[in-house]
DNA sequence: CGCCGAATCTTACGGCGTAAGAAACGAAAC
DNA sequence: GTTTCGTTTCTTACGCCGTAAGATTCGGCG
């Protein structure tokens, strides 16, 4: 954010672990993960690459850091004890998706790394609280929350993967799919042509709804219409 | 497979695109993605790094290739028109999981790249066929199949991520989780202590079951017990 | 002032992906 | 058998990467 162009002779950059992570996150989102090198990040901050090692022990820690920074942005599940847990979970999933989509550069990392940072733990704890308060057994609460978050992460990761940074349509785009031989893949071609199941947000909503409905059913909850 | 140690003077290596991809896949699974460099792969095959560029235009294509090679191993959904689509999908999900788990090195790639290779298209087409034959509308078939595959991929990716190659327990392991302060995260700590929701296979089965049940419910299928 | 710890820079090493071209081979053409 | 030619393999080199080691410069405190 603050303009990092060319410090005067013997004037410090005034970095923080936080400011370094923020710049890294911003750079990854803007130019993609591949463009996030220590030297490039240094240049972005008006500093040599090695300087960054005063704020971060190695690059992997930097990556962990930006994941955590992005995760910290996610809003916790609402602890409204009056609301149905299904509504709470649906709202949480929706908000998790929009937050993750705001950081396309980090999504490959989120989908790939084990998630046991304080930030994620906080969200998980809150989620479990909501589910337990609704009467679900602990084990099933874990299973439910796990299934929901994994689906959200995978779906958003797939969304950004098929629309890469600064790039024309990828191989998975509907346009590309529509051009394959209907004799080889009739249904896929038809879906691409008619646009069935093409809208990311709607497909996402369907998956979430199915997951929540299914969990409720397996747990013997009364169905609602 | 074939012993690649030290060809005699002026004796060819006899590589194929397939053999190169196979070796790359095997190397990635055995030593992890980070260890898969062109030079290392060349050494594995008894050949200089640049030689590989006769079989693959660049490293990204190599990665795409090993993903496709792994994907080709997945068994297509059974087209048994007598069986319930729910059973077919559950079996497919289960088999997809075991296949993916056989290639831990490739999972980060699968979870990350857009999937529009012939192999995946074949599986998708078959899945859509099954669902359509059961009477689901095309759009919903796409949504259902999408939700299922994404969940499977995300879950298996999470499984291998929390048990990395040749490594002691990662940060997300139950042991590590059990040691955090119960005052900060009481439910997470309790779950870790009692082992609730700890079994990967069972948690997976729950998610799949929930997803399928939920999709059926949303599509107005009669419930079964 | 002198000193010290923190912040920054310099230099350097080994590894990476890969561009460019030389070299060695096998098979077909003569 | 010799020549030719396309395929396969190797050699060399460039610029990038992460980062180890250490010199340097700074602000603040005695």
UniProtKB/TrEMBL annotation, chains A, B:
This is TetR/AcrR family transcriptional regulator. Residues 37-56 bind DNA. PANTHER family: HTH-TYPE TRANSCRIPTIONAL REGULATOR RUTR (PTHR30055), TRANSCRIPTIONAL REGULATORY PROTEIN (PTHR30055:SF151). Gene3D superfamilies: Tetracycline Repressor, domain 2. It comes from the Bacteria. Keywords: DNA-binding, Repressor, Transcription, Transcription regulation. SUPFAM superfamilies: Homeodomain-like (SSF46689), Tetracyclin repressor-like, C-terminal domain (SSF48498). Coiled coil: none annotated. The keyword Transcription applies. The keyword Repressor applies. InterPro entries: Homeodomain-like_sf (IPR009057), HTH-type_TetR-like_transc_reg (IPR050109), HTH_TetR (IPR001647), Repressor_TetR_C (IPR004111), Tet_transcr_reg_TetR (IPR003012), Tet_transcr_reg_TetR-rel_C_sf (IPR036271). Residues 14-74 form the HTH tetR-type domain. It holds the Pfam family TetR_C_1.
């Amino acid at each position: 954010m603050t303009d990092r162009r060319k410090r005067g002779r013997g004037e410090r950059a005034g970095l923080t672990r936080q400011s370094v992570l923020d710049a890294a996150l911003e750079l990854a989102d803007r130019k993609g993960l591949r463009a996030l090198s220590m030297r490039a990040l240094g240049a972005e901050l008006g500093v040599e690459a090695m300087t960054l090692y005063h704020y971060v022990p190695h690059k992997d820690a930097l990556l962990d850091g930006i994941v955590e920074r992005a995760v910290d942005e996610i809003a916790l599940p609402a602890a409204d004890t009056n609301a149905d847990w299904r509504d709470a979970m649906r709202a949480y999933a929706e908000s998790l998706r929009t937050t993750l989509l705001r950081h396309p550069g980090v999504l490959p990392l989120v989908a790939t790394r084990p998630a046991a940072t304080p930030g994620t733990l906080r969200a998980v704890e809150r989620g479990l609280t909501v589910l337990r308060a609704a009467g679900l057994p602990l084990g099933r609460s874990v299973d439910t929350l796990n299934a929901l978050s994994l689906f959200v992460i995978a779906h958003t990761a797939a969304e950004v993967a098929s629309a890469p940074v600064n790039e024309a349509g990828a191989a998975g785009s509907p346009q590309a799919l529509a051009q394959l031989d209907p004799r080889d893949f009739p249904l896929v071609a038809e879906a691409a042509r008619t646009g069935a199941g093409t809208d990311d947000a709607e497909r996402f909503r369907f998956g979430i709804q199915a997951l929540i409905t299914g969990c409720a059913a397996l747990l013997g909850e009364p169905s609602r219409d």
